[in-house]
Amino acid sequence: MAEYSLVTIEITRSYDSAAFKEDIKSMMLNVAKSSGKGLVFLFSDTQIVKESFLECINNILNTGEVPNLFAADEVEQIIGLVRPLAKAAGKQDSRDVIWSHFVHLVRESLHIVLAFSPVGEAFRARCRQFPSLINCCTIDWFMPWPKDALYSVAERNYKDADKSLGIDNYVGSLSAMSGVIHSSVTSMAENFFLTLRRRTYITPTSYLELIKLFLSLLEELQGVLTARLKRYTVGVDKLNQTNAIVDKLKQDLTEMQ
Questions:
Q1: Residue 141 domain flag
Q2: Surface-to-core class of residue 106, CB atoms within 10 Å of its CB (0-12 exposed, 13-18 middle, 19+ buried)
Q3: Distance of alpha carbon 53 from the chain centroid
Q4: One domain for residues 161 and 225
Q5: Which of 64, 63, 55 is nearest to 21 (CA)?
Q6: What is the pLDDT confidence band of residue 2, given thresholds at 50, 70 and 90?
């Protein structure tokens, strides 16, 4: 979109705060190397291995930089990269001015997209601890999907399912069924809250997981049935072979008599 590059982080078992800071540095350097071309950093709450990740993001959102992020030699590299850009923008040729221009480029060109679930206490605690997540962001709230949206999402997922599942002729029925299940569970969750004062959240992600679970169970069940069918087929073949042998023995006995 808008010809911006999209980047995200790849979480591994050894991924830590140092690795995250290296990725942040790489993004900021890419902004300088591309002369301020737009870069989008997509970050979800499932990628928060350590809360210090949010401290870096909070600083970038608030000031455009992370204190003590770059080593001295890296600062010199950035100054060299940004000097022509600052000069073209009519800025003074001084280190402080050039660095300020670099920070300006980061704030203007590095767009951070945060995908957080509002469910639970963690989101509230993070918003209190890192206020820039609220103050420096535009918040898009995703409301419950209407009936047509539930149907369309299910239809797309079922159409994209493996053809070996054999559900092509049932996509419409499955899509409608999935929407009804989700809506009924949402209603039951509200009744559960009214009765026991305990909140259970049914989100769009829950709906996608429902579809994924159905397809997974269907594939698993088909595997079980295929294995049983193969076993029965082999058994029938063995019986037929045995019957043929018995018939041959009967014929041999008759001839011997």
A1: no
A2: buried
A3: 18
A4: yes
A5: 55
A6: low
CA angle, residues 187, 188, 191, in degrees to nearest 5 = 90
pLDDT digit string, tens, across residues 37-80: 788 999 999 899 999 999 999 999 999 999 999 999 999 988 99
Read off the CATH number of the domain in which 123 is found. Answer: 3.40.50.300
Residues 6+ apart with CB under 8 A from 250: none
pTM surpassing 0.85? no
Question: Considering only CA atoms, which of 120, 115, 253 is closest in space to residue 199?
Answer: 120
Q: What's the order of all strands across the beta sheet hosting 110-115?
A: 5-7, 39-44, 110-115
Which residue segment(s) compose the domain that 246 sits in? 147-256
Q: What is the pLDDT of residues 90-149, one digit of tens each?
A: 888 888 999 999 999 999 889 999 988 877 788 889 999 999 999 999 988 778 889 999
In angstroms, the Cα distances linking 76 to 99, 155, 234, 249 are 10, 54, 74, 95
The amino acid sitting at 241 is Q
167 by Cβ neighbours in 10 Å (0-12 / 13-18 / 19+) ranks as middle
Q: Read off the pLDDT band of 4 (50, 70, 90).
A: confident
Residue 39 main-chain phi, psi, to 5 deg: -135, 130
Helix axes 171-196, 147-159, angle to 10 degrees: 130
Total domains present in the chain: 2
